[in-house]
Amino acid sequence: MNLGLQGKKAIVCASSRGLGRACAMALALEGVEIVVNGRDPERVETTASAIRNKTGTSVLALVADLCSEDGREKLVAACPEPDILVTNNGGPAPGRFEDWDHAAWLAALEQNLLAPALIIRAVIGGMRARRFGRIVNITSAMVKSPHPLMGLSTAARSALTAVCKGLSREVARDNVTINNLLPERIDTDRQRLMAGLQAAARGISMEQAYAEIAASIAANRLGTPEEFAAACVYLCSAQAGFVSGQNLQIDGGSYAGLI
Known about the structure:
Layout: E1 9-12, H1 18-29, E2 33-38, H2 41-55, E3 59-63, H3 69-78, E4 84-87, H4 102-130, E5 133-138, H5 151-171, E6 176-183, H6 189-202, H7 206-215, H8 225-236, E7 247-250
Parallel strand pairs: 1-2, 1-4, 2-3, 4-5, 5-6, 6-7
Helix pairs in contact: 1-2, 1-8, 4-5, 6-7
């Protein structure tokens, strides 16, 4: 299927590794010109080179901190007329409600609400004027299945979900869509971190921690970044123009609810 993405331009935030990198690679394989972003110069350039070598697509490596106004301005200046924006950012570490002070709440909101919302604000007007735009937010399964240890992340990402739901209704008439991907138990560095915390807390091996995580998933395995990225590519495609304001869970069928 021709997804209608050849020659499109994309900013993929926090894409030097993990889910962001997988999405950047998958879009590049469809002929999308990519801005790869991260804070570690060596890692960003390594990722950009890998994508160029595999796809032959134009890839710009940009070191920028999404949580700073300067970083967001650098991203938009590098690609002032993006057709696609994939927002992504690291999330707060798990913890206990009683330990989260004012500064912790502000940092979480900066990271997972304000950073993506402000970069969306910077590009959405141009998308509407050009009558094509695809915005995909990488959020979390915790948006629909909150866990007490992930309260900082859940609060910020749920707020972003609410903002974007309202905005999606306004911009749909201009062929601009906004959707959210909700990962759960994808085999990334973040998942390895979580498994390590679980192993240390319970005095078990990493292998045991991974086996228990896999057993908690309906598919009885962890998802791959490539599976996640394939869903992102579809939501960015020409064929997905009638899909907007949605939360798509990439979780191996584990979510127990109806909605």
